[in-house]
Amino acid sequence: MVQRPDDPLLSMTLWPHQSLTPKGLEFMSWMIGIGLAIPAFAFVGTAAFWGMLPFVIGAFLLFRFMIHRNQRARRLHEELSIWPDLITVRRYDPDGTIHNWQANPYWVSVTLHDNAKIGNYLTLKGAGREIELGAFLTPEERVTLAHDLRRALARAK
Fold it and tell me: Has UniProt tagged this entry with the keyword Membrane (predicted)?
Protein backbone atom coordinates (compact mmCIF):
# COMPACT_ATOMS: atom_id res chain seq x y z
CA MET A 1 0.00 0.00 0.00
CA VAL A 2 0.98 3.56 -0.55
CA GLN A 3 2.22 5.57 2.43
CA ARG A 4 1.50 9.27 1.98
CA PRO A 5 2.70 12.30 3.92
CA ASP A 6 -0.47 14.34 3.26
CA ASP A 7 -3.70 13.93 5.22
CA PRO A 8 -6.55 12.12 3.47
CA LEU A 9 -9.93 13.77 2.81
CA LEU A 10 -11.54 10.84 4.62
CA SER A 11 -9.96 8.15 6.76
CA MET A 12 -11.92 5.57 8.71
CA THR A 13 -11.60 2.16 10.29
CA LEU A 14 -14.62 -0.15 10.13
CA TRP A 15 -15.06 -3.06 12.52
CA PRO A 16 -17.91 -5.32 13.68
CA HIS A 17 -19.90 -4.39 16.76
CA GLN A 18 -18.13 -5.55 19.91
CA SER A 19 -20.40 -5.46 22.92
CA LEU A 20 -17.85 -6.55 25.52
CA THR A 21 -14.20 -5.83 26.12
CA PRO A 22 -11.80 -8.78 26.32
CA LYS A 23 -11.68 -8.28 30.12
CA GLY A 24 -15.50 -8.34 30.25
CA LEU A 25 -15.62 -11.54 28.21
CA GLU A 26 -13.10 -13.15 30.56
CA PHE A 27 -15.18 -12.16 33.60
CA MET A 28 -18.38 -13.44 31.97
CA SER A 29 -16.64 -16.70 31.12
CA TRP A 30 -15.70 -17.38 34.73
CA MET A 31 -19.18 -16.42 35.98
CA ILE A 32 -20.75 -18.93 33.59
CA GLY A 33 -18.23 -21.56 34.73
CA ILE A 34 -19.24 -21.01 38.34
CA GLY A 35 -22.90 -21.14 37.31
CA LEU A 36 -22.33 -24.47 35.59
CA ALA A 37 -20.61 -25.87 38.69
CA ILE A 38 -23.26 -24.85 41.24
CA PRO A 39 -25.73 -27.70 40.45
CA ALA A 40 -22.92 -30.26 40.74
CA PHE A 41 -22.09 -29.12 44.30
CA ALA A 42 -25.40 -30.58 45.54
CA PHE A 43 -24.11 -34.03 44.61
CA VAL A 44 -20.60 -33.85 46.08
CA GLY A 45 -19.68 -37.19 47.67
CA THR A 46 -22.12 -39.24 45.59
CA ALA A 47 -21.73 -41.31 42.45
CA ALA A 48 -24.00 -38.81 40.61
CA PHE A 49 -21.35 -36.10 41.15
CA TRP A 50 -18.76 -38.14 39.26
CA GLY A 51 -21.31 -38.79 36.51
CA MET A 52 -22.08 -35.06 36.17
CA LEU A 53 -18.49 -33.81 36.47
CA PRO A 54 -17.33 -34.69 32.93
CA PHE A 55 -20.35 -32.90 31.44
CA VAL A 56 -19.87 -29.77 33.57
CA ILE A 57 -16.16 -29.63 32.71
CA GLY A 58 -16.89 -30.36 29.03
CA ALA A 59 -19.53 -27.59 28.84
CA PHE A 60 -17.16 -25.11 30.48
CA LEU A 61 -14.23 -26.02 28.20
CA LEU A 62 -16.46 -25.80 25.12
CA PHE A 63 -17.69 -22.37 26.25
CA ARG A 64 -14.09 -21.18 26.84
CA PHE A 65 -13.07 -22.44 23.39
CA MET A 66 -15.94 -20.55 21.76
CA ILE A 67 -15.07 -17.35 23.66
CA HIS A 68 -11.46 -17.55 22.46
CA ARG A 69 -12.60 -18.26 18.92
CA ASN A 70 -14.81 -15.16 19.09
CA GLN A 71 -11.82 -13.15 20.32
CA ARG A 72 -9.87 -14.13 17.20
CA ALA A 73 -12.82 -13.16 14.97
CA ARG A 74 -12.85 -9.69 16.56
CA ARG A 75 -9.59 -8.91 14.70
CA LEU A 76 -11.57 -8.37 11.47
CA HIS A 77 -11.54 -4.75 10.33
CA GLU A 78 -11.23 -2.54 7.26
CA GLU A 79 -9.27 0.69 6.81
CA LEU A 80 -10.40 3.15 4.15
CA SER A 81 -8.64 6.35 3.06
CA ILE A 82 -9.51 8.83 0.33
CA TRP A 83 -7.15 11.45 -1.12
CA PRO A 84 -7.87 13.64 -4.17
CA ASP A 85 -5.99 11.21 -6.41
CA LEU A 86 -6.22 7.88 -4.56
CA ILE A 87 -8.64 5.70 -2.60
CA THR A 88 -7.33 2.72 -0.63
CA VAL A 89 -9.09 -0.07 1.23
CA ARG A 90 -7.20 -2.53 3.40
CA ARG A 91 -9.09 -5.47 4.93
CA TYR A 92 -7.58 -7.40 7.84
CA ASP A 93 -9.07 -10.89 8.18
CA PRO A 94 -9.05 -12.75 11.52
CA ASP A 95 -6.53 -15.28 10.16
CA GLY A 96 -4.01 -12.47 9.54
CA THR A 97 -4.60 -12.18 5.79
CA ILE A 98 -4.52 -8.61 4.47
CA HIS A 99 -6.37 -7.66 1.28
CA ASN A 100 -5.48 -4.38 -0.45
CA TRP A 101 -7.38 -2.42 -3.08
CA GLN A 102 -6.71 1.00 -4.51
CA ALA A 103 -8.05 3.13 -7.34
CA ASN A 104 -8.37 6.66 -8.62
CA PRO A 105 -11.40 8.24 -6.88
CA TYR A 106 -12.50 9.89 -10.11
CA TRP A 107 -13.43 6.47 -11.54
CA VAL A 108 -14.79 4.87 -8.34
CA SER A 109 -18.51 4.26 -7.95
CA VAL A 110 -20.36 3.47 -4.72
CA THR A 111 -23.32 1.09 -5.04
CA LEU A 112 -25.91 -0.04 -2.51
CA HIS A 113 -27.51 -3.25 -3.78
CA ASP A 114 -31.15 -3.38 -2.62
CA ASN A 115 -31.97 -6.79 -4.06
CA ALA A 116 -29.05 -8.62 -2.46
CA LYS A 117 -29.57 -11.29 0.19
CA ILE A 118 -27.77 -8.91 2.54
CA GLY A 119 -29.74 -5.70 3.07
CA ASN A 120 -28.05 -2.63 1.56
CA TYR A 121 -25.02 -4.60 0.37
CA LEU A 122 -22.31 -1.97 -0.25
CA THR A 123 -19.70 -2.22 -3.00
CA LEU A 124 -16.98 0.01 -4.44
CA LYS A 125 -16.12 -0.39 -8.10
CA GLY A 126 -12.95 0.90 -9.71
CA ALA A 127 -9.60 -0.13 -11.16
CA GLY A 128 -11.24 -3.12 -12.85
CA ARG A 129 -12.57 -4.65 -9.60
CA GLU A 130 -15.65 -4.48 -7.44
CA ILE A 131 -15.15 -5.02 -3.71
CA GLU A 132 -17.57 -5.31 -0.83
CA LEU A 133 -17.20 -2.88 2.02
CA GLY A 134 -18.48 -3.18 5.57
CA ALA A 135 -20.25 -6.52 5.08
CA PHE A 136 -20.25 -6.92 8.89
CA LEU A 137 -22.08 -3.60 9.44
CA THR A 138 -25.84 -3.28 9.87
CA PRO A 139 -27.87 -2.24 6.79
CA GLU A 140 -28.45 1.20 8.33
CA GLU A 141 -24.72 1.67 8.96
CA ARG A 142 -23.97 0.74 5.34
CA VAL A 143 -26.43 3.40 4.10
CA THR A 144 -24.68 6.04 6.24
CA LEU A 145 -21.27 4.82 5.07
CA ALA A 146 -22.36 4.99 1.41
CA HIS A 147 -23.54 8.59 1.94
CA ASP A 148 -20.23 9.56 3.57
CA LEU A 149 -18.24 7.87 0.79
CA ARG A 150 -20.20 9.59 -1.97
CA ARG A 151 -19.66 12.96 -0.30
CA ALA A 152 -15.90 12.35 0.10
CA LEU A 153 -15.56 11.10 -3.47
CA ALA A 154 -17.36 14.21 -4.75
CA ARG A 155 -14.85 16.38 -2.84
CA ALA A 156 -11.98 14.33 -4.27
CA LYS A 157 -13.22 14.88 -7.85
Answer: yes
